Sequence to fold (746 residues):
Amino acid sequence: FSSLFSCSVAEQKWTELDAAQHRAHAMRLLDGLEVTARERRLKVARAILYLTQGSFGECDSEAEVQHWMRYNVFLLLEAGTFTALVELLNMEIDNSAACSSAVRKPAISLADSTDLRVETIQREDEADRPEWRASRETFRTELGSSLYNNEPISVMLFGMVTKFCSGHAPHFPMKKVLLLLWKSIVFTLGGFEQLQTIKIRRREGLGLPPLPEDSIRVIRNMRAASPPASASDLIEQQQKRARREHKVPCLPACYLCPAPSCPYGLIKQDNLDAFNEKDPYKADDSREEDEDSEENDNALETETFPLERDEVMPPPIPHAPSERISFPKGLPWAPKVREKDIENFLESSRSKFIGYTLGNDTDTVVGLPRPIHESIRTLKQHKYISIGEIQIRREEEYQKTPLSGGEEEVEMSPTELLYQGMLPSLPQYMIALLKILLAAAPTSKAKTDSINILADVLPEEMPTTVLQSMKLGVDVNRHKEIIVKAISTILLLLLKHFKLNHIYQFEYMAQHLVFANCIPLILKFFNQNIMSYITAKNSISVLDFPHCVVHELPELTAESLEAGDTNQFCWRNLFSCINLLRTLNKLTKWKHSRTMMLVVFKSAPILKRALKVKQAMMQLYVLKLLKVQTKYLGRQWRKSNMKTMSAIYQKVRHRLNDDWAYGNDLDARPWDFQAEECALRASIERFNSRRYDQTQSNPDFLPVDNCLQSVLGQRVELPEDFQMNYDLWLEREVFSKPISWEELLQ
Fold:
């Protein structure tokens, strides 16, 4: 790096220069990106990468590296380096020579993607200086607008993903492309905290009542239920119970005794303190067991587990002998009722008591009993109108009255610009993401026709020692985990942002995910030992940046690699699992045909195994998926899984007139996947055509020119064959046909 500035800073360090010198050298680097010599240009790009990584060669601590990283990134941003890097990236994308050479190689290695690896620049969201804050906002606006090749940067990265999956550019470093795509979406559109703020602002703009609670805060304060016990735990539990019964003949009395202690050394309800002593989810058909542990039926033992905790499965908390188990007061979520639910309730009540119906009238209660009045009042108190319902009504009005409805005012937000850029090729983007997700899933088997996602992790020469092989194995597994994390977050963020921007944008993306078999793919992902995946240790902490460039690296051995780090679990994999579960919830919510797909693919046992992970947010979304299909799983399943039903009741939001736990008359409801999806697809196509397809306007609504002079004065281009046979046309169409001029004039 110092050789680039040998003419002026040969004896100085970057950290010793002042701001003016920093800017001068940044501009010199910027000029170096425009040289024609490829090696020189690549050398300058690597120097820029070194600066964005904090000039770590001159730093003595990780905090110092972080400081210079932020400083250098904002310095390069103000100098206009990002635009130059985007142009360089476009040139590398269109580099046909690199593509053709990579296609011809049987094995794609790390060297093929060296040119592209220098493009990824990490950027922080927080800033200390006012000028940095202004630069960040300007950069966010530029990144979300169509300034780069007439499309947002995210659309360009999506194009790289599809080009990689089609086999035309197998040398692309897909992990870095996906990470950059994720970060660009988060930076331009906003993360989960910003989504909540946008939702509140949108509801205020539409005149809707505020949200009943802050969902992020509720989930953070939610308690995790005890995981189901495995078969070995159940056997050990029975053996312990048998030993206690043999040693202590008065065990049932001790269990029910209100005294804090027992002369036999037992503690009241001792098994409540152990996580796996009593299985809250296990079907228990033994009546004696149910009678003995009747007080423990609600042993959905809970423990506060916010996301900021360092342990996903903490050790048991010791209770004092006289301490009683405290359960949360009330339910965590306020119940919701849709307008459609109130209409259905009124229609059924009128048909039952009066014998007539009034359609969509939810105000007339004449002739109904007083308890029905109270029920309707309670339902209306909890009525929730979503933003999507308002958007659907407005779209129906635009479709009914295209002329008198007026022009729709579309806010050109970053989400709207991204959707417009993705719209022409959105199905291909979704298929490409799911292809990569399938290749990176731990349950997928290597196939000859599958895509190679390891192009930027495999070395040119394969390892020759055991230590090198183990290190490469850790790198490959970590590489796949990062890809899964990036794709799961991209899908969830796009679905949530599109749903807030317009419901049919969300439905368009969700439907193409369903058509690309996203639902069975996610279920296949969870059809593994999910606890092993959550607790995987595919990272080497001493090699993490910036630790590896500041401290001296210890000698790596096979034993240290096998032991892994000290963390009991992997936040990265837990984050990916939660995102995939939330995506599956988004795809199936209020969609009967997609819910039946969960039933057909036998997702219930797969999801129940995921409940073993003792994390509140993950358990919540697993229970949501189980709740929507409970009514279709049969009475026997509900009877043998009452602990799971109790957990659903305790943790998932209630719909007041939803008989999810019974399924009385819906068991025979027909499942017509094609009809439901076709009706939804027709609505989506009408929306996209009305708002975005300006060329396919309805000819009946186009203005008509009735002026004779302007019509005759228009120049009409006649085809060449018509001009050659003009005499024949005159003879056939004019001279040979009698014309009644009197009738024509009248």
